[in-house]
Please model this.
Amino acid sequence: MKNFKLSIIIPTWNRKEKLIKLLNIIILNLKKNQIIFEIIICDSFSNDGTELAVKSIFKNHLNIYFKNVKKNNISKKRNIGIKASKYSNILLLDDDCVPKKKFFKVVKKYLNRSKNNEIYCGQYHTSQKLISKSNYYKFRDLKNLKTDKLVQINYNNIITGCCFFKNNNLRNFIYFNEKIKGYGLEDIEWAHNLKIKNFGLFLTEAKVDHQETSQNIGAYILKWYMLSRDAMPSLLKNKKNQMKGKIFTFEEVFAYSIFKSFLKGMNYFLLIPISILLKFFLIITDKNKYFFSKKLFNLLLFFYYLRGACDRNKKSIKKTHWYNLGYK
Model:
């Protein structure tokens, strides 16, 4: 395991504090694990002073590179990072994913024995302190896949926020689709392309503390709205009738004009008022564990997915974060 070299690619935007904290933690752990590394930060001219802070605080680290990408697109940032990497071992790490103890030890273990056609994922964990005080964070943690050993997963379960692989084959023909708009789905499409090319997808015991920026379900549902409104139409242009899962089953039904018209008619009279009331209920009962219901949280996500489907082709709202704010 000596002379293990790792390229770490971190896409970011307007998260200066999170990024600085992450860099301090991973640099310390990389040194502890005797890993030769480079860190490639891909930003889009953040207006919170991210670039200045990174270059000032880490000015003595010649192996930290800062790239500004004109188009604020997470797929493009990851692709640019992969293409710029100089080591064969690649780690994609989101700026809100803080590696926990033994994370890099696990990364070394699997990449040292890996073949070129294997993709490994870490697993998201939520702070127990947050879980104990919030039904929302409990729900988010229950959605995370957990394992204490290597297990194979399908493309719908890919976790690109902490994903590692050898890039020898990858850089030749499989990159993230930069044409997918909105939030999410670029990762699932990427994983689907990998499966078609006979790559193995695996979940490992490598853990990260997923410091999700959503403070309650009110912010998280906006991602589902955007996923449905903007990302899904982009994906369906290339992958219609190829990908499987509950969402894609819905999309097959939604394609029928009669059902689409019926759902859009229900949007204003039922979906919007019911979803707003349910959101309000889950927010005001968030700290009371007796009101926790995984089914209610999932139902709200589905309602916002339906609302996004009804609002397709609407003009995009200017981004203030990775996803748009401003919806009700």
